[in-house]
Amino acid sequence: MSDILVFISILLFSLTLVVLYLFFKTKKENLVLIDENKSMFSQLNEANLKASTLEVRLDETIKASKEKFEFLENSKQNLKLEFGKLANDILELNKQKIDEQTKQNIEAIIKPFGKEITDFKDQVNKLYFEESKDRNILKHEIDGLKNLSLKISEDANNLSKALKSQVKTQGIWGEMILKNVLEYSGLKEGAEYTSEVALRNDENKSYRPDVIINLPDNRHIIIDAKTSLVGYERYMSATNDEDKLIASKEHLESIKSHIKFLSDKDYPKLLGINSLDFVFMFIPIESALILALESDSSLLKSSQDKKVFLVTPTTLISALKVVENIWQFQKRSKNAEEIAVSATKLYDKFAVFVEVFEKIGNQLNTVQGSYDSAKKTLIDGRGNLVGQFEKLKEMGLTPSKSLPKVTED
After folding, report:
1. CA nearest 305: which of 272, 358, 260?
2. Measured by CB atoms within 10 angstroms of the end CB, which terminus of the chain is less buried, N or C?
3. Residues 282 and 202 in one domain
4. Euclidean distance between CA atoms 192 and 324, whole angstroms
5. Which residues contact 216 (CB under 8 A, 6 or more apart)?
6. What integer pLDDT is reported at residue 252 of this predicted model?
7. Domain end point (choices 311, 341, 365)
8. Where are the beta strands (DSSP E) in 260-375?
9. In this structure, are 149 and 11 located in the same domain?
10. pLDDT band at 190, cuts 50/70/90?
11. How far apart are CA 56 and CA 105, in angstroms?
């Protein structure tokens, strides 16, 4: 009987150990998943905060542009009224008719001046329209960021199949995820980025980067999406700690090997592009990078020392949003420069108009002086011609016509 009790006790003790082992193993895995989720939500919240900040700045810019537009519109109306009044005053001068050439000179000045005002208004309207469009795009992108984590989760459902396939299949899957991230970031293929472009180095060796991001001033960023995740898949499929440890080491070595591979390629020295002196190494699964960092906390620094930056969908989106904002700022800066050029031309035209208007005034004063002098000789002055001719008539001259009565102005 005592043997049976001993056996039962041993059996119960063993079962307890098994239950405890399973409990702690499950708890550990849950903690890992919780840490991964916290990291993803933290990065997503950071991206949302940046997007909100950009939206506030865009609202302020739009408000300022609207005030400038209203000011320019009012100025245009005032200028139209003043120029209309000025033209009427000039044409109604009763002292001297302005010859046809003078009229043509005035029209030649006023017409281009009016055109400059219209062009200036059109450019301001264009800038205001683009900023309004940017605001709508930004709101759309904020919604996209909120849905991004859901999309990444859906893509992750296909990960297990891709990871169990050949390395080439993994690469295709990684490129697909990268393309989705680029689309979410608002970049357009063929404009802000290009894919699979054949390039050569100074030794005429051929290279084909996965993606080249185009920056203003003809600068570029290269992104590689061919990271192998075989070790990560084995880690996720492992059923014991020993297998997980072996798989995690294999995964880390695979990441390091690809970092060295990209560093040795020296993409920034390729001909035909002006790349920044680093490469983005895209890892399509957040937890795959976290697993590698758990195995080697210095991985990020060592990769950056080799001019290779490790990025995941979340971190890459934040970087690409900066790129998109740079492009938008570049476009707005270009429009602002065009407006400044138009404003300069507008000022120059107005200066010419004022100069010619002053000349017209001087000419009118000269004509008025000549008119007054001639009138004095003819009518007003001592010994004027009209008086002398009238005396001749009084002395018996019998002309067939009489002098018209000339009155003072």
Report:
1. 260
2. N
3. yes
4. 8
5. 326, 327, 330
6. 92
7. 311
8. 275-282, 308-311
9. yes
10. confident
11. 50
